[in-house]
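Final report, Chapter 2: Outcomes

The project's central promise was a pipeline that accepts a single protein chain and returns its three-dimensional structure in a standardized token representation, suitable for archiving and comparison. That pipeline is now operational. To close this chapter, we reproduce one record exactly as it appears in the project archive, with the input sequence first and the structure output second.
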Amino acid sequence: MPRRVLSVRAIGRAAGGFRGAGALTVTIPVALSFAVGLWALARPALWRDEAVTIGVARRSPWDALRLLSDIDAVHGLYYLVMHPVVAVFGAGETAVRLPSVLGAAAAAGLTAWLGMRLADARTGLVAGLLVAVSPAMSRYAQEARQYTWVTALAVAATLLLLRALERRGDGGGRREWAAYGAVVALMGWLHMFALLLVLPHAVAARRDLRRWAVAAGCALAAVLPLALLSVTQRAQVNWITRPGRDDLWYLLDMLAGTHWLILPTLALVVVALWRPSTRPGEGAGDDTRWGLLAWLVVPPVALLAASLVVPTYLFRYVLFCFPALALLVALGLRRLPAWAAAAVLAVLVVALVPAHRQVREPDARADDLRTLSTIIRTGKRPGDALLFHQQYYRRAMGAYADAYAGLRDIALGRTGTRSGTIDGEEVPSAELARRLADVERLWYVHRNAKAPDAPDRAKERLVRRSGAFRKVKRWRFKGGTVTLYENLRPGTVPGDGDGGARSAAAVPKALSPAGGGRSAARPARPAPV
């Protein structure tokens, strides 16, 4: 019999639904994943990417589409889905992260179902539990981004592929192939890099390659407009660097859950791949196991290789490969006696607790917008002004809006909604200098940048080097500093460090978009994704 990536017995078990013990196999991982996701859900502070989600979701769909035509189109579908969530439930940490918790629970349940169809209920249960307790899945279950739903759709697409291949023998399968194509297209619209899943799927479907090609081709064609638009927005990921050894180590660390579990995890994968199945009804043949390995390895390797030329790799872009690892580890544990497998699984779960606690620290994200906002909330006075050294920290105003109520955003020319940008457009430095003359107290949010651009350097000169402002106090938060300044010469326009101070009357008022003149404001800095 010719070899197949997915065994005949496995494909047969993908048919139909589940009942009885099968239902329990799925619902236990779903419930555990949901509970793990809710654990300290609101403890980590919102960070910049989540603040973008909130800011765009608060806009009308028309305003959001206007933004997406210029930047961040790859996240467009997710933003539109989050619009009613924010409108109904608000923009608190729990409200905006709960959809990601549900996505992680769906991924755990679907992985259990897939494991049950590929092997047996025990394998499915263990694989689903591994997804449920994974720190990597938990990390993105507690983030207002789409990566857990991309993972769930990747598993759903694989299940539908199995179902469609199983129907090949009876001449049917049109509905299954149509559903497969629709799910792959939806997955691509949520995040394009998830379409790398079609590479291992192509090998799995080689016995019915024509119909697979039609379904996958239709899915890719449906995502093509997004891909073409995203190419024009390439600048938004210019901050990503070429991958190196640290990226590979981080990939292994996140997949295993912690660095000292990397070797045990690899050992279980080797056991799953190397030792042949000898137990009656085990059902996961060589082709199935090597197919799972392709799902685990091919997308990350392909993206890492491409990123050596055009840097685009981040771990979260390949999170959808984690269920394949969970299934392989479950198959490895299946080779062990039941008591040994239970002991190993218990050790793995206990060993993951410190990693779970770490991702739930208040400052566990790249920056801590909550601490920044708390500092300003407790120290602000009526009439205070606010200046962002790098304007993407303006996103904090959307994440924790109440902290900034009553403050004047001194550099803002046009809001993000009006300008069709994420962070809004800022006034030229001459207009900023004139506005600073009217400020008595200034909150200056600063982040050290390796290569600040000209407007950021101008802010530094006006605030820190002009001699017009005296530092009252400086606070640190993860991601930067916030400093309170007092104006020593109210009514006098601060110099830029070269020309000295001038009276406000001596400086012509710069034309700004709000005043009907031609805008000299710089465009918003591209957003991380």
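Archive annotation: The first strand starts at residue 385 and ends at 388.
This record, like all others produced under the grant, will remain available to the consortium after the project formally closes.
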